[in-house]
Amino acid sequence: MKVVDVITEVFHYKSRVVRDADGHGHPGPERDAAQTLLRIVTDEGIEGCCFGGPVDAIQRIARSALIGEALLPRAHLKRLNVWQRLRIGVLSDKALCAVDLALWDLAGHALNQPIHRLLGAYRDKVRAYASTMCGDELPGGLDTPEAYADFAEQCKERGYTAFKLHGWMPPIAWAPDARRDVAACRAVRQRVGDGMALMLDPFHYYSREEALYIGRELEKLDFAWMEEPMDEHSTASYVWLTEQLALPVCGPETAEGKLQTRAEWIVQKASDISRGGVWDVGGITPLMKIAHLCEAFGVSLEIHGNGVGNLHALCAMPIPGAYYERGLLHPFLDYDQPPPWLHEAVDPMDSEGWVHVSPRPGLGMNINFDYIRSHTQ
Ligand code: XYH
Ligand code: MG
């Protein structure tokens, strides 16, 4: 079976998520938005799909590495990793992720198996944590510590057994505010009680002293972890913070460098829990290497981000991350409603807080191609 075409389509939909100047998502007025679909087509008519990749990089660069290649050998992925060295500005890890996920989807359809089973499934469901959007100034949204407590209570009633706060960040004028972040964490703990696992993902550029202050306060509140409180390009800062805290520090999330960066953080003891997601590291293939690296060191790996690629990896991890990051959530948005291009959500959660991976072949997405065709520009 050989790849004969790589097609990228852009289609329109209505979104109620707006991006602030720093790129964080918040609820907002309905707006026109665009989504991309990558389709890898073979000479036997079987296709692999992935939503969300950067069209330009895939069409200009990745396509030439894939056309004519046999499906299963992964030599073309190694070639794309090498090509990144002088094209990192265009050939991002997000582009590699889209290609990798579409190739796994293709392999799953060719072999009639879901991806997590191709990888050696360890489970078919994972506990979710509710991952909030960043704080805002929307009355009744996530505008006060009590608002976070209200939302945490709603999420607990929905079935979540864990809750992660994203604190307030610029461009809000008065943010960041370490004490206000702690006040929100304290309000949530007091509201949901001791039985719910809590985490904090605050402003990502605090000083060492501010990160230490927050960490010490979260220890008093029995938080499960804190992630990315400082610039992850300073490994030394994380080594210093991790040495100071009993609270588990989780990372790196956004630091470039895939498997190698995570290996360095483990060896240097820059965090207690490792982290990464398919869109950070270039797909399921590198993420499974990181999972096996963590297994070798006995280090937990908490997967960054929602989505079907992360869910399949989580179900195939020998040292499982404890949670699937379900979100980002907000009181004003119904996350359980699937996007219009899918007939059903890729991460359905039951009333006990378990997210179930699809048993269908490949990524297992139930795609609404009629919607895509009628909304393609
Ligand atoms: O918007 O800063 C942010 C969040 O931190 C986002 O990058 C991401 O969803 C995340 O960190 N999840 O843990
Ligand atoms: Mg994070």
Question: How would you portray this structure in words?
Answer:
The chain is α/β, with parallel strands linked by helices and 377 residues long. The chain has two domains: 117 residues, Enolase-like, domain 1 (2-Layer Sandwich); 240 residues, TIM Barrel. Strands 4, 5, 6, 7, 8, 11 and 12 form a seven-stranded mixed sheet that branches. A three-stranded antiparallel sheet has the order 1-2-3. It is globular, with a radius of gyration of 20 Å. The protein binds xylarohydroxamate and magnesium ion. The site of magnesium ion has 5 residues, from loops.
Main attributes of the structure:
three-stranded antiparallel beta sheet, alpha/beta, globular, single chain, Enolase-like, domain 1, seven-stranded mixed beta sheet, TIM Barrel, binds xylarohydroxamate, binds magnesium ion, 377 residues, 13 helices
Quick summary:
By secondary structure, the protein is an alpha/beta fold.
Bound ligands, each once = xylarohydroxamate, magnesium ion
Secondary structure class reads alpha/beta
- Which range does the strand content fall in? 15-25%
How many strands in all? Answer: 12
For the sheet with most strands, the description reads: 7 strands, mixed
